[in-house]
Amino acid sequence: MTSNQNYSKYKNYKPPFPFNKPFSTTLLSKLRRIVKFRTIRALNAKTIRRVIAVDDFKMTSYTNLSEGSVKNLYLLPGYLGNDNSSYMLSALMYFSKRGWNIHRLNPVDHGDTLMMNKKFFNALHHKIVGRALEILINKNDGDHYLMGFSFGGNFSLRIAMLNAGSKFKRVVAISPMIDHEKSLEGLSDFFNKYYIKKWVNTFRAKEAMWKDYDLRKFYKMTDIKEMMEEWLPFVLPEYDFVNLSEFFNMYKISADKMKKLKTKISIIMSEDDPVVPINSAQHLQNIDNLNFLQTKFGGHNSFTENFSFDDYSMKIAASELGEE
């Protein structure tokens, strides 16, 4: 359970139209980068960029330090998002203003790492990302916290089950992907096309960089599951999946898996999320060391409070991190 005062305030909060509609608030949240442009530009001008190598993979981190701070927040983006995704910038702005050190990590194929790696990103990279986070942690003194969004939220929850998870005082997952298979079953045509386009763009970029790739068969596919069935033997040949469900179950967040948690967890989800159905997470509401915070509105990684594009998920998350 939680005594989070901001959660009590925003649990049933209804934003003004159009931010009280799941699709419109999710899409319009991308405008936060424009509305907050000056603040974002000033913060990005002070960012320290690092390249982090783990095995054959390269990732990048973007760090903003606050003088004298011992509070470190590490951020993971959603699927093929990056350090400049609107929700990542929302966290950067909110917590930097409150004196935190912010470390935004781009996993493989996210942001500027796309052209650094010939091999593709896949859903089983959470251990690689966990090791990258440990490298960052070893460079920074103080307390450490992890926050992930959407697919990055899924990664954050699985990292919390690894030994690396014990290094974080708390992990916060916002709109996390819980059950990818269930999410795809209810995904609208719009978001199906949206995610396919993002995925295909990575194929085109890899082909342009590495001429021995020929991925044209994917370009005309219109179903994500069909693409995944063709893609899995190519990107994960070491596995012999009987079906897609076997693959999905490897990164599904189940109640049994959550028994392996190495730290405290907070999950923030909206009832009207158009990408991650709230019923995919009902089994997580009564688990030790887990605060499940469900709001009535918010869409997917939006939680836009007003026409200033303030993000009330940050206020809820801040209270979970002891920052009232």
Could you please describe the fold and organization of this structure?
The model has no long low-confidence stretch (mean pLDDT 96). The protein is 35% helix and 16% strand. The longest helix is centred in the middle third of the chain and has 21 residues, at 189-209. With 324 residues, the chain is α/β, with parallel strands linked by helices. It is globular, with a radius of gyration of 19 Å. It has one domain: Rossmann fold, CATH 3.40.50. The relative contact order is 0.18. The chain has twelve helices and eight strands. Strands 1-2-4-3-5-6-7-8 form an eight-stranded mixed β-sheet, sandwiched between helices.
Task: Describe, in short, the structure shown.
This protein is of the alpha/beta class and 324 residues long. The protein has helices spanning 5-10, 22-28, 32-35, 37-44, 86-97, 126-137, 151-159, 180-185, 189-209, 224-235, 244-251, 312-320, and strands at residues 48-54, 57-64, 71-76, 101-106, 143-149, 170-174, 264-270, 290-295.
